[in-house]
Design brief:
The complex is a heterodimer of chains A (360) and B (377). With 360 residues, chain A is α/β, with parallel strands linked by helices. Chain A is built from 11 helices and 6 strands. In chain A, helix 6 links the parallel strand 3 and strand 4. In chain A, helix 5 crosses helix 6 and helix 10 runs antiparallel to helix 11. Classes of the chains: A alpha/beta (360), B alpha+beta (377).
């Protein structure tokens, strides 16, 4: 039996070889929440395939640094005119080069440097095609293929899959698009494919869900998840109204577990994200609809947890404080005021304890 | 003769038939796997794989001669006939709908062959491609179930989704049970037949797909030779080349503009061989052009106009020839005597693409260095 191919594609920043290890562990941990996995190992049925593109960006930065640094050092040593003009290239690829070069540069290079953008698209398309083409031809089945993309990776994946499915290779009919190939699902976390769109428009591409009889739709299901306070996907939000209502599912998440609300794992932690992923990966509803309903219930999965677990207690104390203060009126006596101050001091001390215990 | 309206008769018959339909539906606590959206190979038993003639491997065995000859239409027609006989014995609307779709798929394939002027057997990859172009939206997946998620977390199968012939194989009863709207044996047959047709189609497209995969690999090799192994580009050059070159992801550029490109060079006077002294200089290629060639664009050659800067002479100017990877040769005329004329003999210089040089030669030098250090220690 062939396994489900679960491709994962990272967001901004440098992701070294083996970057998927933490996500694999996270997914394994998540399966323990559901009884269907008691005697079932997810990885017996699913092959996790990490896709990387950060290496092309790092190569560019290294190249600019080495070439520019060498030339500027020579010019400076020999006191040649304009020696400082290349100095800015000198430290862009250093590990401590700061947030701009380690994160924002990814977005800038992908969005504005067409050479690197198309190089990345070709690379991602190949990384998708490699494991699929390794399957014997009659068992090759695109409905066994799932994509899970995060942040900048949503844009990169979008563009790459569109090119893969629309290009006419060597004059032949494309066989990486419907009706020959339709992926089971594309899941995007913090989708930025609209804000970064350039020559391929996010709403007009083939990267959208569709029934078998719909041309120019390359997947059966398209899931789009956005955290309510994730700033990355706020601008030009991906919110297609014309996608198939049967195939397109959008959810805004309101859970708080970690300070990095944009994090890949933070998104994955929410049952609304990982339950459909696990079910599709397993090819059946291994988490049933009733189990899924329980899993998203506030009692099972409260809004605040992890590093935010004390927020409800804090909210309760703040409410207590408001109630105490509401006893005071403009005409209240000095004695009443002292009573309220004493009471509120106690609550304030408790609030202080809660805040001090926050795991930062 | 009855004077009642035909529509009323139909409604009456439907009302009478309803209890029978409801009674004939099976309610189960666990959904049989053929109703789930996972592929057939995930749930078919080992025994059925061996013995069921509808299973794809048995289909490939039975039609091996036709497959070898490229007679795909004959295979599809035979499978459609088998399906008609198979589903016909069970009766019911679902089987009939499925069979009608099967026949339409075969009909579409027949038409596609005619449009591609293919009499019988498909012989070449061009013919396969022409048939695929003519297939429209029908193809490998046409007889397989689709899925959708009513709650965004779990999935339900459906046949021929968003068409007038949509078929729901089951429905949830609300108490955790499932009412089977298509009999299990019909569903089983539909799944196996859809799967076999999918496999036949994948066999049909495979040679074309392989060619396309090869094109993807070639494109990646060319990109490597252009960006990773080619003449290095500064950010402004990468931007410029991105704007002016005609390329896309699977058709990498094979030309490169050089613009304001500084690199280190070693320059020597050509005045006298005996007095020749070499000096490190900064070579700034003002404008140039490179051509990439070879099967994967692994070679390049090109020309540029350079300004050579050094601390002991006024700037020199001259052409640079890029004649092999990493190494460039140039001539520069300096105004040595300060008469504002470039009338002295030219200097010759050799420029090294520092990044590429370090990339290719760096590890070797490092190894030599480590060896020497070990020896001295």
């Amino acid at each position: 039996m062939n396994k489900t191919l679960l491709f994962i594609i990272h967001g901004m920043g440098v992701h070294n070889q083996g970057w998927e290890t933490d996500l694999k562990t996270k997914l394994t941990d998540l399966t323990t929440r559901y009884p269907g996995f008691q005697n079932v190992d997810l990885w017996d049925r699913v092959e996790l395939i990490p896709i990387r593109y950060d290496n092309h960006i790092v190569d560019a930065l290294n190249q600019w640094q080495t070439s520019g640094g060498t030339a500027s050092a020579f010019a400076e040593a020999n006191k040649l005119a304009g020696s400082e003009s290349l100095a800015w290239l000198d430290d862009i690829a250093n590990e401590d080069s700061g947030f701009f070069w380690s994160h924002v540069a990814d977005v800038v290079i992908y969005r504005f440097f067409e050479l690197y953008r198309d190089r990345i698209r070709a690379s991602v398309a190949k990384q998708v095609a490699d494991p699929i083409m390794a399957i014997p031809k009659t068992q090759r089945d695109f409905s066994r293929v799932l994509f899970l993309a995060h942040s900048l990776g949503t844009s990169v994946l979008h563009d790459s899959l569109h090119m893969l499915g629309k290009n006419r290779f060597a004059g032949y009919a494309n066989t990486f698009s419907p009706p020959t190939a339709r992926f089971r699902a594309i899941m995007t976390l913090a989708n930025v494919s609209r804000v970064l769109q350039n020559d391929i428009k996010a709403y007009d591409s083939i990267v959208q869900p569709g029934a078998h009889n719909k041309a120019d739709t390359n997947c059966k299901q398209f899931f789009n998840f956005r955290h309510e306070l994730d700033p990355i996907c706020l601008v030009r939000r991906f919110d297609p109204q014309h996608f198939s209502t049967r195939g397109y599912i959008h959810r805004t998440l309101e859970h708080y577990r970690d300070w990095n609300l944009h994090g890949f794992e933070h998104y994955l932690d929410h049952p609304r994200v990982h339950i459909p992923l696990l079910n599709m990966a397993m090819g059946r509803n291994i988490v049933s609809s009733s189990q899924a309903r329980t899993a998203i219930d506030n009692r099972t999965y409260p809004q605040f947890g992890g590093k935010f677990k004390d927020v409800p207690a804090l909210q309760q104390k703040l409410q207590e404080l408001r109630t105490i203060l509401s006893d005071l009126r403009t005409e209240s006596s000095l004695g009443d005021m002292f009573k309220v101050v004493t009471k509120s001091k106690k609550v304030l001390a408790e609030i202080k304890d809660i805040i001090e215990n926050f795991d930062t | 003769m009855c004077k009642c309206k035909p529509m009323a008769v139909v409604v009456l018959l439907l009302v009478m038939a309803l209890p029978m339909v409801v009674l004939s539906q099976t309610v189960v606590e666990t959904l049989p796997r053929q109703y789930e959206f996972g592929e057939v190979s995930e749930w078919i038993s080992a025994g059925d794989k061996q013995s069921d003639a509808r299973w794809r491997e048995r289909v490939f065995e039975r039609f091996a001669p036709e497959l070898a000859a490229g007679r795909y239409l004959k295979i599809l027609e035979a499978l459609a006939d088998e399906s008609r006989a198979d589903l016909g014995q069970y009766g019911g609307a679902a089987g009939a709908v499925f069979q009608a779709q099967f026949d339409m798929l075969v009909g579409q394939f027949r038409t596609a062959l005619q449009e591609a002027a293919i009499a019988d057997a498909v012989q070449t990859d061009q013919q396969r491609s022409a048939v695929l172009d003519a297939m429209g939206t029908r193809g490998a997946d046409s007889l397989r179930p689709e899925e959708y998620s009513p709650d965004g977390m779990t999935f339900q199968t459906v046949y021929f989704m968003e068409t007038a012939h949509e078929l729901a194989p089951y429905e949830e009863t609300g108490d955790g049970k499932f009412s089977l709207l298509i009999p299990p044996e019909v569903m089983y047959s539909m799944r196996l037949r859809g799967d076999a047709v999918h496999a036949i189609f994948m066999d049909f497209v495979a040679p074309v797909q392989q060619k396309q995969y090869a094109a993807i690999i070639t494109a990646n090799n060319k990109w490597d030779n252009y960006l990773a192994n080619g003449y290095s580009q500064y950010p402004w050059e990468a931007l410029l080349n991105g704007w002016v070159m005609n390329f896309h992801a699977f058709n990498p550029p094979d030309k490169q503009v050089i613009l304001a490109h500084p690199s280190l060079a070693v320059e020597a006077s050509t005045l006298s061989f005996d007095e020749m002294t070499a000096k490190e200089v900064l070579n700034v290629e003002l404008l140039g052009f490179l051509w990439y060639f070879g099967q994967n664009n692994e070679h390049y050659t090109g020309l540029s106009l350079s300004a050579v800067l050094r601390d002991d002479l006024r700037p020199g100017f001259g052409p640079v020839l890029h004649w092999r990877r990493n190494i460039s040769l140039g001539l520069a005329w300096h105004d040595v005597d300060g008469n504002d004329k470039f009338d002295e003999d030219p200097y010759v210089f050799m420029s090294v693409d520092a990044f590429r040089f370090m990339q290719s030669e760096g590890p070797k030098f490092r190894a030599e260095y480590e060896k020497a250090r070990a020896y001295l220690d």
